[in-house]
Specification:
Layout lengths: L3 H28 L3 H5 L2 E5 L2 E6 L7 E5 L2 H12 L6 H7 L15 E6 L6 E6 L5 E5 L12
Antiparallel strand pairs: 1-2, 2-3, 4-5, 5-6
Amino acid sequence: MLDQHHQDQAVSRIDHYAHMAKECISQAASEYMRPSVIYKPKLSIDGNKWCALYGNNLQEGVAGFGDSPMLAMCDFDDNWHKRLPPASSAAAACTGANGGQADIATTSREALIPCPVCGTEAIHKMDILERIQILPKQAKQPNDGEKR
């Protein structure tokens, strides 16, 4: 039989390990509450970065980018909680077809899409967590084989 001192030590150790187990379970449970775990965004490679995308495209969905899938998922989790910029400030910054710039937070990629602010078709050159530069659409030159 253990004397009182050894019993107290045993109880203290059991209590310590129970507390450690509770913390481990709590940490594991919190990982399952991350947006990237709940919504399971699609992982792909975009240029030299991994992209975690939830939605049909970058303009309508939520995305995260990183040098590894884990970093892309962490960026996705951060972006999931961000608010959209106020529409009035974005509209004031956009000059549409005049070739101005719009300060709209988004992700990295270059595409010919309608401007989310003024609706004109422009080349949106985007930098992750910075802004979209809206450039005037360049006239497409028809090939010799195409009708004019």
